[in-house]
Amino acid sequence: MAVFKPENVEDFYVIEEVLGSGHFGQVRKVRDKTTGTFWAGKFLKIRKSACSHLGLERSGVEQEVEILQALKHPNIVNLKDVFESRSEVVLILELVSGGELFDFIAEKENLLESEAIEFITQILEGLKFMHSNNIAHFDLKPENIMLSDKLSPRPNIKLIDFGLAYHFSQGKEYRSTSGTPQYIAPEVINYEPLGTAADMWSIGVITYILLSGLSPFQGDTDEETLKNILALKYEFNYHYFSTTSAMAKDFILKLLVNNPIERMSAEECLRHPWIKPITRKQAVSRNRSSINIRSFKKFNAKRKWKMSYNMVRMCNRFFSLRLHCKGSFKPDPLERKCESDVEDAESNPASLMRRRLSS
Question: What biological-process terms (Gene Ontology) are attached (predicted)?
Fold first, then answer.
């Protein structure tokens, strides 16, 4: 059961600068008044009534809190405290200051497969722990794979944003159409019962992108992307995979499988010879192969541009809504101000897009 503290968060933490803003709140840097330790405060607006369109449903936040409180692992962001007021919930999370893994890699001039494998291994270790506790993330993508810091010679991976995560109960089916089109599994599109294998599909897509700088199923529209996924339409184009080892391709092939039962689990991935070489020849092959860093840099730059464009577009739409409602809307002075309180009026379930606040 999720534990929420009724006290005022500002009695325990000094609220500092904004680290990021999302659809339903903000992430701010906070400092523990007792220890001086810095954390990340995730301030989430909560709906006041069932018919309200402002904020998140408390039950959804409660589910995320329960999951985070159950997941204590070096490769999963740590939840320290949860505070609740009349209009918001504040999650006090581990401060992950190293930025996104993909941004870190894009700054390099070259990267061997063996170096990339170190990051993939940490992601798999986090997933193995999650899945052993019957929890799936359901929103694995570059934006949710962070580094604890950039200064360490061996940066530590942190999986974040468990807003779409689900804790499975025995004998109970779960279906969802939430996620980001590029990374969702076929069973999500088909609205079939889901399991932890959906996360493993996402790992296959992320690994494909990491090695080549190319998204395997990306179309010109979301609908085209979804069709490509259902048709399992992808290939290892030589132009992008000329420096990729055969073992790496085999690793991806065993994840981008239409039947969830036939996909490798996180535990099986960790035993795959690409991750854990069995022979000296396999180890040498990894060290001689590298990711397509030039193509990867282009992919990451385009990804960041698209994120910025979507944020500006969302802010402009919100500003227009506020102008339209200015005459009739009276804000509650007790509510904390936030850059975006309003749900996306243009959200379409068919697009399978569901934006969440990223830490």
Answer: intracellular signal transduction; positive regulation of apoptotic process
pTM over 0.70: yes
Residue 183 is classified by DSSP as G
DSSP notation for 19-38: EEE-SSEEEEEEEETTT--E
330 domain-assigned: no
pLDDT for the residue 51: 56
From 139, 161, 199, 341, active-site residue: 139
Q: Was 337 annotated as part of a binding site?
A: no
Residue 254 has pLDDT above 70, yes or no: yes
The answer to whether the beta carbons of residues 225 and 219 sit under 8 Å apart is yes
**Which residue range is the domain that position 234 belongs to?**
101-296
- Cα separation, 257 vs 232, in Å, equals 8
Helices (H), 37-168: 58-70, 101-106, 113-132
Q: How many domains does the chain have?
A: 2
**Residue 139 annotated in active site:** yes
Residue with tokens 């010879």: 273
Residue 181, phi then psi, degrees to nearest 5: -45, -45
pLDDT for residue 45? 87
Amino acid occupying residue 38: F
**End residue of a domain, out of 62, 94, 126:** 94
Q: How confident is the model at residue 338 (pLDDT cuts 50, 70, 90)?
A: very low
Domain with residue 70: its CATH number is 3.30.200.20
User: How far apart (Å, rounded) are the C-alpha atoms in residues 317 and 313?
Assistant: 6
